[in-house]
Amino acid sequence: MKIFRNALYRRHDARLEMYRGRLVPCHETPARLDHVLAELARRPVGMLLEPLQQLDLGAALAAIHAPRYLDFLAGAWDEWVALDPANAQTDILPAVWPVRGFRADVLPESFAARIGLFSFDAGSPIMAGTWAAAREGAACARSAALAVAGGERAAFALTRPPGHHAGPDFFGGYCFLNNAALAAQTLREQGAARVAVLDVDYHHGNGTQTIFYGRDDVLTVSLHGDPRTEYPFFLGHADERGEGAGLGANLNLPLPRGTTVETWFEALEAGLAAVAAHRAEALVVALGVDTFEGDPISGFRLRADDYLRLGERLARAGLPVVLTMEGGYAVAEVGINVVNVLEGFEAAAG
Ligand code: 6XA
Ligand code: ZN
Q1: Which of 46, 56, 220, 272 counts the most CB atoms within 10 A of its CB?
Q2: Catalytic residue (choose from 164, 165, 203, 224)
């Protein structure tokens, strides 16, 4: 398979995130991708490629994200440093949010207010290289989708920061640009009548769900830790089925903390059955490996070999597939688990 690798992934290397009441070192680190690349050097299951040059990326991103959000993200670091040159030593974190009853239609002048307007947590710092890294990752996701639209069986966007929590006009959960949504939208633009996004990360893909919630052309399916106890908490329940034209085109399969592999694969079957019922012509897999038993911030019990099986099962769905790299924080095992998915896929795809 073609693997579009984000060569700028190290530029996003933020220092501290708010976690359990303290500022702690970020879980989402460049080392995660170092390990995937190292494992790919040992097991070359695909061709490592740079993203394409001619992508019309700005217009493609504007199909899934609000222009004022994209403008804000692109300029946030420069604005922050312009406020006070000493800010260059500190990453940006929000501390105030417009909750229920507040107005989101008036764009505040205050930077502190706008960073809150465009975010939903204090765990996703923005630093000097965040935009460059996120944008290059989006280029990888779009390139992967274009490759698959052009006839490749499968392509992988190997990137960080991840994307599935980023919504039309908000970042959070370490995500800024929604790579899986961009891939799905690109597949639609390139002629697939119906597309499905299957999110197998431990956390609910709230951003992807929100982007496509009112649409019936993109089915969104997510298997994840029950939001009653797990991040992102405020979305991901089973009764969220889509709205308007999109009613019936969203499926959430929340599972309790501690879920073992048998139950998890049963949920995967239900998710894939929905993809088949949607008559999807292409599939986007938001691939997080934080379902791993050793993940420090998650609660499922998958083991390394289970990721081989996951890859095989995805291949047997028989659809052209774009995979995007999402979570996974057991850093030393992230490479093995991700490459196991790719190897399992290649073995079963033949
Ligand atoms: C809270 C935990 C964010 C989870 C991020 C993730 N800072 N999402 O892995 O898939
Ligand atoms: Zn996750």
Answers
A1: 220
A2: 165
Q: Would residue 12 show up in a list of annotated catalytic residues for this protein? A: no
Token pair of 121 as six digits? 């947590």
Give pTM, 2 decimals: 0.98
- pLDDT, one tens digit per residue, over 307-328 is 999 999 999 999 999 999 999 9
* Structure tokens, 3: 């693997």
Mutate to test the pocket of ligand 1, among 290, 300, 329, 331 (most ligand atoms within 8 A of CB): 290
Asked if 284 and 197 touch (Cβ cutoff 8 Å), the reply is yes
**Cβ-contact 27, 297 below 8 angstroms:** yes
pLDDT in tens, 279-290: 999 999 999 999
- In SS3 terms, the chain reads as CEEEECCCHHHCCCCEEEECCEEEECCCCHHHHHHHHHHHHHCCCCEEECCCCCCCHHHHHHCCCCHHHHHHHHHHHHHHHHHCHHHHHCCECCCCCCCCCCCCCCCCCCHHHHHHHCECCCCCCECCCHHHHHHHHHHHHHHHHHHHHCCCCEEEEECCCCCCCCECCEEECCECCCHHHHHHHHHHHCCCCCEEEEECCCCCCHHHHHHHCCCCCEEEEEEEECCCCCCCCCCCCCCCCCCHHHCCCEEEEEECCCCCHHHHHHHHHHHHHHHHHCCCCEEEEEECCCCECCCCCCCCCECHHHHHHHHHHHHHCCCCEEEEECCCCCHHHHHHHHHHHHHHHHHHHC
**163 alpha carbon, closest ligand:** 1
